[in-house]
Amino acid sequence: MTRSVNAPYRFVPDTPPELVVHDEIAPCPYLEGRLSRLPLRIPARPLLAPELDARLAAGDRRQGLLFYRAECPACRACEPIRIDASVFVPGKTLRRTLRRNDALLDLELGRPVVDATRIALYNRHKVGRGLDNGREPIDFQGYREFLGLTSCDTFEMRYRRGGALVGRSIVDRGKEALSAVYSFYDPRHARLSLGTYFILKQLELCRSWDMRYLYLGLYIAESEHMRYKARFLPHERLQEGRWIEVRENPTR
Fold first, then answer.
1. β-bridge mates for residue 214, sequence order
2. d(Cα 135, Cα 119) in Å, to the nearest integer?
3. What average pLDDT score do residues 190-214 get?
4. Going by DSSP bridges, is the β-strand pair 213-219/177-185 parallel, antiparallel, or unpaired?
5. 24 inside domain
6. What is the CATH number of the domain that holds 191?
7. Does 6 or 41 have the greater pLDDT score?
8. Alpha-carbon distance 230 to 239, whole Å?
9. What interhelical angle do 194-208 and 92-104 show, nearest 10?
10. Do the Cβ atoms of 65 and 151 come closer than 8 Å?
11. Confidence band for 209, pLDDT divided at 50, 70 and 90
12. pLDDT (tens digit, 9 = 90+) per residue, 60-92?
């Protein structure tokens, strides 16, 4: 999700306070023909781990320095989704995906990096997965603002095959939760189900760091690119201000 930032500005109370830099009705970035309202907010300072947990539990997502939460006037299609890592047990297919890719890929953790290799990989992913929507490829500044800047504790998970970077996940770290901000991979390796594999590795981190939740962003049943999230069962979705457990995938 990308959005231009426009005035007027206003502060909203929180811990810490936040500056709202955009709050207008606009075409929905997820569903064609819908209108959305996604106010963009900048915290007055970087968030502490418990403060990030509170925002995630309220349904917030992060893009660069900005946080947002859907407040659309006539649509409730967007549902924040999370997995309770303490109770999630992968099924046979997910375990097979995990074993296969563990044997093929090397994982590194580190601070987010902005460079030509990552920008090229991001653009290949967008085109190869049909997510570019005819837009121009992202440049250094756009990539830095989207995935290089942050207002909380953020790290990247780098996946290499034979030394070559084939995938990357940007992840935020709270006290009790991780948040999957954005992942992308080389579409030439799509048969490896890397999007699913990245989530499984983030769940492993949750358990090894004694964290309860992995937040997967937004689930939109009408979006074919987001339906895969419903395969991770059980999971919870935020509906009308309450986290509701889901144990069956209605799209099967």
1. 83, 178
2. 15
3. 97
4. parallel
5. yes
6. 3.40.630.30
7. 41
8. 15
9. 90
10. yes
11. very high
12. 999 999 999 999 989 999 999 999 999 999 999
